[in-house]
Amino acid sequence: MILRFQPHSLELKHAFNIANHSRTATPAMLVEVEQDGVTGYGEAAMPPYLGESPETAAAFLRLVDLARFPDPFQLEEILPAIDALAPGNTAAKAAVDIALHDWIGKKLGAPWHRLWGLNPAKTPVTSFTIGLDTAEIVRQKTREAAPYRIIKVKLDRDTDRMMIGTIRSVTDKPVTVDANQGWTDRNEALQKIEWLATQGVVFIEQPMPRAQLDDTAWLRARSPLPLIADESCQRLSDVARLRGVFDGINIKLMKCTGLREAHRMLTLARALGLKVMLGCMTETSCAISAAAQLSPLADWADLDGALLIKNDLFDGATIVDGKVTLPDRPGIGAVKRLPSSGS
Ligand code: MG
Q1: Where do you find CATH 3.20.20.120 in the chain?
Q2: Domain 2-109 has what CATH class?
Q3: How many angstroms is it from 205 CA to the middle of ligand 1?
Q4: Ligand 1: distance of its center to the CA of 107 in Å?
Q5: N-term to C-term CA, the chain
Q6: 301: closest CA among 285, 283, 324?
Q7: Mean pLDDT by 10 residues, the chain (343 residues)
Q8: What secondary structure letter does DSSP report for 89?
Q9: Start-end ranges of CATH 3.30.390.10 in the chain?
């Protein structure tokens, strides 16, 4: 099996502001695997604050020798071996995992939701994300979110009343809040959540810093709204210790090394009584479509990543009337829009 990769810059429609930074593009690496005339596509999306870059991804992908594995279906051999090549590099690992899943699905002529036994009619609605911004931009983005049934809003320490008030001046749709670890004082966090519960907010994602699990457990015991782990939950090995600390977890392919591990995290979360949100980075429809294959298993989806970029190279899962909608195509369900100049 041949592995190819090529960098791609995801250009954002709006500068993306979260608690500590702002940016206008997200670096990505597009990956292809090819054997028997079948090509599988994958993608690593690498927001800079997570520590990966096109350079680290290229260095990691050069270590991956798929020719060592005679049967590409043997993911239980291949993926642990790739994971063991180096620590971290979760997005680069996810790119290979997604491409291999795409290849297998295409080879079998079946989409992954079907191979997993999932009903494509049972996909969840997805939220549309609004980042920290001026009231004028927030109003504009809220109007752009008209097709979506849930709005996700990014809040920091000081702008919560402005952000929520501005959104509420445009719509009464349910809102989910992502604090991105921004609330460091648990009493202050509780006061914010008590107020947000009166504003049509349905849950709070990562209210406190990832390591403050004792404070988060204290907060959860008092919070009128469910708390969902994002930064505190990266991989399968994180899930069990979050029981009793959070009410649910946000699974993202780029954090957890791909579909294989994401499926296991979903299973474990269910067994532990945790809710599951399926999230994303800014990504093309390649990685979004891969995650969407799992979405009938999730309580909530936050799969708006491809809607936030101007240069999506793939057609794949779409959002119809606010709901994740899976195409009837094999593999991850994504097809390339433009020829790759590197292949
Ligand atoms: Mg988050």
Answers
A1: 114-336
A2: alpha beta
A3: 6
A4: 34
A5: 15
A6: 324
A7: 97 75 90 98 95 98 96 97 98 98 98 98 94 91 92 88 95 96 96 97 98 98 98 98 98 98 98 98 97 97 92 96 96 86 46
A8: -
A9: 2-109
Q: What is 114-336's CATH superfamily? A: Enolase-like C-terminal domain (3.20.20.120)
Query: Which amino acid is it at 131?
Result: G
CA of 230 to the centre of ligand 1 (A): 5
Ligand 1 centroid from CA 342, angstroms: 33
Helix (H, G, I), strand (E, B) or coil at 44: strand
What's the gap in Å between 302 CA and the centre of ligand 1? 9
Q: Which residue, among 35, 92, 34, has the nearest Cα to 58 in the 3D structure?
A: 92
Query: Would the pTM of this model clear 0.85, i.e. be above it?
Result: yes
> Within its chain, how far is the Cα of 140 from the centroid?
24
Residues near 198 by beta carbon (within 8 Å), at least 6 away in sequence: none
Angle at 213 between CA 207 and CA 219, to 5 degrees: 55
Q: What is the DSSP secondary structure assignment for residue 248, as one 8-state letter?
A: E
For residue 300, the CA-to-ligand 1 centroid distance in Å is 13
